[in-house]
Amino acid sequence: MTWAGHSTALIELDGTRLLTDPVLHRRVGPLRRVAREVEREHFDHVDAVLLSHLHADHSHLRSLRTVGATTRILTPRGSGRWLARHGFSEVEEIGVGDEATVGAVRVQAIEATHNSHRWHLGERRLWPIGVSADPIGYVVRGSGSCYFAGDTDLFAGLSALNGTIDVALLPVSGWGAKVGSGHLDPERAATAAALIAPRVVVPIHWGTLTLAIPGRRAWDSERHAREFEALVARRAPAVAVRVLRPGERIALAHNGLGGTPPRAGTDG
After folding, report:
1. I need a labelling partner for 16 at 20 to 30 A (CA). Which of 30, 48, 145, 205 fits?
2. Paired sense of beta strands 167-171 and 136-141, if any
3. Cα dihedral value 108, 260, 21, 35, nearest 10
4. Per residue in 4-23, pLDDT tens?
5. Does the pTM exceed 0.85?
6. What value, to the nearest 5°, has the Cα angle with vertex 221 and ends 173 and 39?
């Protein structure tokens, strides 16, 4: 698994390459990227894109076009027509409980609890007008398993994943100093990690984007990742936390963890 920043991760399992919620460019509406840009290799030759919901920082049209207009896209029910209108030809809607086969792996849509209302930020919208599609998360299974939460708050169904997940990708923050309801902050994300009990958890959705406001006070972009790591160490010590920076990766084999797992704010 390679984290490319925000909710964008390349999952490579059994020869299949899946890219989650691509955000690959410097600007997303009123948001700008403060993390380093990702290498092209992280989104070349992708077998499918997994979209969790249609907020622009998760379904960024320019980034999707960079991945390729003919790349297969799995997307929540109700969003397919909007993507087709924007020129994407291989769109497959999927709802909670549905499964799709991509290469050698199975992809299942699961519940997510996230605000899907339309709202304004400055003069730009981060949700497409006239589209109603409930957010989802994904579980990818083959010789191993990966849970991608997308954007979600805690929900009862998380406990059903307990002991079945090798790597969990959990959001722990957003693009500011705090997040509201419908999201996981370090505290709630640590609770989610304890409920799921994966072998490894990678915090995502932190330290990548911020509001492009001149003179805006800087904030500690790594703080939430460090808080999450400390909380998981206390609440679920059997779960290994790997805090990555954009472009870094981990490799999980049946006999252990490899790759490059440096922790935020420390030497690797």
Report:
1. 205
2. unpaired
3. 160
4. 999 999 999 999 999 999 99
5. yes
6. 90
